[in-house]
Amino acid sequence: MNECGGERSSTVALALTGSPSVVASPIGDPLDAPKEGALSGRVKLGLRFSLINTVFSRLATFAVGVVLARLLVPEQFGLYTTALVVQTMLLTFNDFGTATALVRHEGDVRRLLPTVWTISVGGACAVYGVCLLTSSLLASGLGVPQAAGLIRVLSLNVLLDGFAAVPGALLTRNLRQARRLIADASGLVANLVLTATLAAAGFGAWALVIGHVGGTVVVTVLLLVVAKQVPRFGISWKHTEEVIRYGGAVVVSSILMVLLQYAPQTITGRMLGATALGFFYLASNVSSWPASVVTTTIERVGLATFSRARDAGVDLDKAASAVIGMVAMAVLPAGAALALLAPEVVDVVYGDKWAPAAPVLAGLAVAAIARVLADLVFNLMITAGSALSSVLVQVIWLFALVPAAITATARWGLVGMGWAVAVVACLVALPVHVWGLRRAGVRVHVLLRGLALPVLFTVITVATLLFLSLIVHGTLPYLLVGGAVTAIVVTVGWLARGDRLTLALDTPVKA
Known about the structure:
There is one protein chain. 80% of the residues lie in helices and 0% in strands. The termini are far apart. The protein is mainly α.
């Protein structure tokens, strides 16, 4: 089951921006100014609350997802996935860049608020209206015409997002992750309880849709409360121009990111049907476990960290190397372990009926590693002021992915799709992102130093798991021992890195 009620398009847009105004809370902002202190200390505080938010949401979603996988059939998951694809694509440009403009705005934001409220809510109403009129066409285009009703209801989240964008942006602007945790956690609990109850009552795919919308209602209301916001409408052409200027590139990038994420699901649905799409959806969801815990934690403060490091006179390349190395130390060994343990994970957690998802999971786990690194590199390019290059590398990635996925699926079926995504991510996306960094003037060799230790620990993890497969017999024992070994390797790796992040963020460049 996909996590909902927490991260929406406004959050995606915010994660793609980085500027002094993200961390500098000027007098007059609607939220109280955060306490000043060392950059590393403030970043770690934000990361702490972001990690709590992420871990709680993943564990809760995982637990209920296991229950739902046993209550629902793959076809029902496939129907829900179709509606989710439409909703996510709509959310990528739903606020029309207002969240981005609000985060980047310098000085008092109160004069900007009426304009961003008007554009955000008005845009959400327009987008939802278009969705209502075209839901049948969209469902048919995705190869699942019976999902039209689900699309219409699930896309209510688009309308709600128009009201959530502004308070969410204000919390991100001031690094108020503790307040964001209150809203996200409450919405997630409401979502999961409602979904599980309706699924047990036999609502099928509708349980997922109604639970998702219910959770988003709770999140939206609480965001308004904790951000102390009441919608105020009005238009200033000066501020409208600012929204267009800052939000345009980010909106385009967000759309491309969603296309990259959901193109394989769309192709699977059209070529192989709803049941295969259900298998792919589960494999895609599981493949993101190691990566999403880290990236969701980092994305709320990652670009703000890069930007603040730049403005504080810190060597941006070294700071980025420390952040990327920290992330890679978790996702590289964990992603490699998930690829090797895929059959055991699917069998133990979800049961025999989901066995076809195992080989797909192995490929998607490898792709998830590459995607995490590519996302961090993309964020760094945005911070370095290379918006055009950041968009261009995603376009190249998408143009390589679509024909490769179609060809591999036609020849090898569902397994071919999973490994096509992995091959393109590793052999096309990563090299193209390195090229983009060079265009942005980033010293790539400095960043690569941060990956040396994670790569070493990944090799150790893979070798150990392969050896264990020869001496540990039984699905559950191998999964438990392999998981324990991976956790130990990641923990030792993090300790080995010591205080590199603190040193990189708090040491200014010598004049």
